[in-house]
Structure formats: structure tokens, C-alpha cells
Amino acid sequence: MGKFISYLKTNSFRNNFIAAVITVAILLFIAFFSLRYYTKHGQGLNVPALKGLSFTQAVSKLEELGFRYEVDSVYIMDTPAGTVIDQDPDARTFVKDNRTIYLTVSMNTAPNVKLPDVEFKSLRQAQAIIESFGLKLGDTTYKPDVSRDVVLQVSFGGQPIKAGETIPKGSRIDFLLGDGKGSEEVDIPTLLGLTKDEALFAIRNGAMLSLGTVTYEGAITDSATAVVIKQDPMVTDSIAKVRIGTPVNITLSNKK
User: Which of 9, 62, 136, 216 is most buried, by the most CB atoms less than 10 A from its CB?
Assistant: First the structure.
């Protein structure tokens, strides 16, 4: 032990110790500055704002600044195809050059979705269901039925469709609803002598009936002035009322 302590006091140990400390310091200095050079410490760029730009505009900006990019696509309703809707990192984020920027771009075709089962559900409930599937409510029409504001039929493009059939996401679908007055009856209006527009107003607004088939008799010189010369049903001794929503067929003619 005494020899070791004596060695620590020698010039040889002191010189070796100082050399070791200097060597470690030099190595640390070289490592530190090498790392700064490798990572380009303090050097970088701000990520440009790309949301809302077209894909072509966004790529042009990224390439001009030396960024790489990767693209993912998604369908967003009411968004023009080829529009950048998201980016990562966000705009004005300070990053190294040659960094990869991830873009999300809107698709030009909508994916298909299956129509959910909404028949015999209330209008409010059915609308909430279809919107959760990415569909929109189109027109609503009514027919005589004891149920009020209940979906009786679903249509797409003018054709009835059933639950489980596939349609493009974002499509508008139409509902046929019950009016809650299926068992009520109304008086049959007298339409003879009325023009088509006048008869249509009397049928739909006055009596809450529906227009059936429209036929013409004789040469029609002016359809706007043609008047109803026949109707079915019409008031007779045996019938004066029909159920709400009953179709009324009319025949028009320019003959007096």
C-alpha cells in the first residue's frame, strides 16, 4: 500500500494522469462537434402551410424547399378531389431539411357504404343513423298511414332500396313517411272546368289527395287553358268521401 501511495506522488504518474485527462477531453470535444455537424445543429426550415392547397401546389412547395413527402388519401364529402386536408408536421414547425412531410389528400371517388336499416324508425332517428354512415337526407314525401313521421320506404335515385344495399358515401337518399292520417277521409273535390294547375291545387292543398294519371282528349291547342272534363273518383250518390292521399285521375281537353 505504501508503494502505491509513493507511486501516486511520482512525476511519472502525474504526467500519465494529465495525458489521460487531455486525451479524454479531446475525444469529448471531437465527439461533440462531430455530432453537431452530423445533425446540422441550429440549421433547418419551417414547414410551409399546405392545408387547402391542391396536391400539385403542395408538392411544388415541398420540393422547392428540399422536403420529401408521403401521401395518404381519404374521401371527404363536399371537398374537391386532390385537396390537401391535413399535414404532419403542422405548418411553421421547425424541422431539419430533407425531412419527410406526410400529406392527407382528398379522393375523387367516394367509397361505398351499406344502407343501414331505418325503416319503421322515426324521421329524426333515421336521419341521425344515415348521417353516421356518411349519407345525407334528400327529399321527404308523405303517404296516408297511421304512423306519423315514420320511415315507410327509402329511395335512392328514384328507386326503392333496402337495408344492406351499397351506395356511394355522401349520397342523398329520400324517405317516404307516414302522415299519421291514414284512416281519415275527406270530401271529393269537384274539378270539372278547372285547368290542370287549378285542379292540382284543389287536389293537394284543398283536399290532401294526390294526382293520379293525367290524360288528354281531342286536339290540345293550348295545354295551359285545357280544362278538366272528367275525373275519377268523382262525387256520386254512393260516394262523396275518400281516404286522405287517394289518387285522383283527370282528363283534360280544350273543348268547351
Answer: 62
